[in-house]
Amino acid sequence: MFDPLTDLVDLKGKVVIVTGGNAGIGYATVRHLARAGAKVYLAARNEERASNAIAKLREDGFTLGNGDVMWLKLDLSDPRDAKKAAEEFLSKEQRLDILVNNAALLRAPYEKTKDGVTTMVTVNYISHFVFTRTLLPRLEDTAREPNSDVRIVNLTSAAYKLVPSTISFKSVEDFNVAFSSSLLPGFARYAHSKLMNLLWTKELQRRISAAESPAPITVIALHPGGVDTFSQNWPCPRLSSWLVRLAIADPERGAYTSVFAAASKRIAENKEEYNGVYLESKPTGRITKVGKLAASEELAAQLWETTEAFLASIGL
After folding, report:
1. What is the CATH number of domain 15-228+254-313?
2. pLDDT score recorded for residue 92
3. DSSP readout, 47-106?
4. Who contacts 156 (Cβ-Cβ below 8 Å, separation ≥6)?
5. Coiled-coil ranges per the record (predicted)?
6. What average pLDDT does the chain have?
7. DSSP code of 180?
8. Contact in structure between 66 and 102 (CB atoms under 8 Å)
9. Which residue has the higher pLDDT, 233 or 296?
10. Which residues are catalytic?
């Protein structure tokens, strides 16, 4: 029953960042939030693709004062670059109302970056952790303004349920599990990174709420559901898209849960109910109980502490 044309708060005067906003769910999320009046920073690595996406939006009437969209260079392959991108944003804007951490790798070969962590975990989790941590003071300042509604939205996946219960995050090497005995090791590594995002979301909300002077920020994780972000690359793309979308959503609808989490009126009216929750897409924005592994406060704290120790070791 969710309709982004009628069920979003008024975002005029609000500032938003969407990572991975140049295509797929991210692009559709940018479009929905800009339509509601927000000034949206489309955070992406490739300038040409970002510029093409923004040009398309501006052709559709998204301009300054009417859902303006602009590029923020964000390379998640190195957490140092993620920090630089956040600092670049902070030099431009005095407020941040909504952060949507959408970008992710679904597939990547098993390889480690120069810092000794796999590319999948670096892009899907660690760089977003750094990006958010750097932006958090601005989010907190905005949240302390009268009538604020500040939200951090992290996209995860129901695939987290496939991660074995023996997993731990006691050391950085626990970030680099290869899952070589799995039938689909690449997908298992993706699920692992998405479990990290879900645990991080819950720990971030806990820490924000437990602060001495807590800022009213709502942190939400979500699974967007099955979304067709790939059929345009298949042979006969028109036919392929038509067939695929008989089974799963197009990006416009596939972004509904992200947009619900970012700006729905329902959350604005029931903020405490949504603190630290996990949402799924059927129906849009359904609060869903997580499994035992994702609900573990001990595991979430362990992940946080190991992440912080790793970042300190590389000078961040």
Report:
1. 3.40.50.720
2. 97
3. HHHHHHHHHHHHHTT-BTTBS-EEEEE--TTSHHHHHHHHHHHHHH-S---EEEE----S
4. 194, 195, 197, 198, 201, 221, 222, 223, 278
5. none
6. 92
7. T
8. no
9. 296
10. 190
